[in-house]
Design a protein that fits this description.
Mean pLDDT: 98
Strand order of the largest sheet: 5-2-1-12-11-10-9-6
Strand content: 15-25%
Number of helices: 9
Structural class: alpha/beta
Largest sheet: 8 strands, parallel
Bound molecules: (5S)-5-amino-3-OXO-hexanoic acid, zinc ion
Order of helices and strands: EHEEEHEHEEEHEHEHEHEEEHH
Helix content: 25-40%
Radius of gyration: 17 Å
Distance between the termini: 27 Å
Oligomer: single chain
């Protein structure tokens, strides 16, 4: 079995300091959280950025500032900027996160429209085609985020048509978003069984499912994402003090289950990435 790649989704676009005072907004706070995650064992940081007041933004200027500051503190980390942004942003606005220099190695590509709590996360076919085209042109490897079962079939069909980058594909099964596919082992197995040979995958369990989905992913040979974007608690009733604490819990689980944790360079090899 390959080593375990741990991704830390350190910030997100929805969670607030009111929910957990350690959620980062400023550049300094974002760097602090990235470093805590990397020091604990994360090979990848999935990045959203905020204005200082916490408002989510996809501005490439803010992404540039945060990327440079993170890479100064963690020179080898793989960054996966979000192209999902926050619900309600336009496709052009969302794609601006990929306009940094150098161009990111990877970026998320969300695989369909879905409920998102009380809101609708809009990813129409034309939006996904535009994002696929941009990533093909710029040589960015997508992380295909599937929130619903049907998202997988959608993106596999698009890959077959050459509308989004193809082999080897990296999927992130984000399960347990209110209104979307529940975070059950059954659902995870259904998705994993349908991906093309040679693909890689990550499991992200939302809220209280963070670690109950991490465990099967570790033993099934997948990878794991945790972080404040997905889960604010280390355990029931205990807020996490940092993203590093959440990553450290996955590292300890991996150790107990006999799986080694990948460095960023090992993750690049597993994901067939070329360092920029
Ligand atoms: N903030 C969510 C609406 C992504 O990063 O690509 C979407 C999201 C997905 O976080
Ligand atoms: Zn995200």
């Amino acid at each position: 079995m390959e080593k375990l790649i741990i991704t830390a989704a350190i910030c997100g676009a929805e969670v607030t300091k009111e929910q957990n005072p350690n959620v980062p907004y400023t550049v300094e706070e974002i760097v602090r959280e990235a470093k805590s995650a990397v020091d604990a064992g994360a090979a990848i940081v999935h990045l959203h950025v905020r204005e200082d007041d916490g408002k989510p933004t996809q501005s490439h200027v803010r992404f540039q500032e945060c990327t440079e500051a993170i890479l100064k503190a963690c020179p080898n980390v793989i960054l996966i900027p979000s192209t999902g942004g926050a619900v309600g942003m336009t496709p052009d606005e969302r794609l601006d996160s990929t306009n940094t220099t150098p161009i990111p190695e990877m970026a998320t590509l969300d695989c369909g429209t879905c409920n998102f709590g009380d809101e609708i996360f809009d990813n129409t076919m034309p939006t996904m085609r535009a994002f696929g085209k941009r990533m093909i042109e710029k040589g960015i490897k997508p992380e295909y985020e599937c929130f619903e079962m049907g998202h997988l079939d959608t993106i596999l069909t698009m890959a077959r048509k050459g509308e989004v980058p193809g082999d080897p594909m990296q999927f992130n099964f984000v399960l347990g978003v209110p209104g979307c596919t529940p975070a059950t082992v059954d659902n995870l197995c259904w998705l994993v069984n349908k991906i093309p040979a040679g693909s890689t995958w990550t499991a992200t369990g939302i809220g209280r499912h963070a670690f109950t989905l991490a465990a099967p992913a570790i033993v099934m040979g997948g990878n794991v994402r945790v972080g404040f974007e997905d889960n604010l608690y280390l355990e029931r009733g205990v807020l996490a003090k940092s993203n590093g604490e959440l990553v450290d819990k996955v590292v300890r689980m991996a150790k107990l289950l006999g799986r080694q944790v990948a460095t960023s360079d090992e993750a690049r090899e597993i994901l067939s990435l070329k360092k920029r």
